[in-house]
Write a structure and sequence with these properties.
2 domains; single chain; mainly alpha; 71 residues
């Protein structure tokens, strides 16, 4: 039996798969970098920043923090 017409026992087909996976990775990788995952800040971090800037009082910070942790 001669599968794939005897061309390296079908290795050329495997190379097509490798190239396809590589191309998908090249286009997908920039969107999966660690710094892109942190762009959406969690509410607690935003609350801490607002408290650090003086936008809210300590009482407001503590109350909001308690509410966020209970969710």
């Amino acid at each position: 039996m001669h599968f794939f017409n005897g061309h390296f026992g079908g290795m050329h087909f495997i190379w097509w798969i490798v190239w396809f996976i590589l191309l998908i990775w090249i286009f997908y990788a920039p969107y999966d970098l660690p710094y892109t995952k942190n762009r959406k800040e969690d509410p607690l971090r935003i609350l801490k920043k607002r408290y650090a800037k003086g936008e809210i009082t300590k009482e407001e910070y503590e109350e909001s923090k308690k509410l966020l942790k209970s969710e």
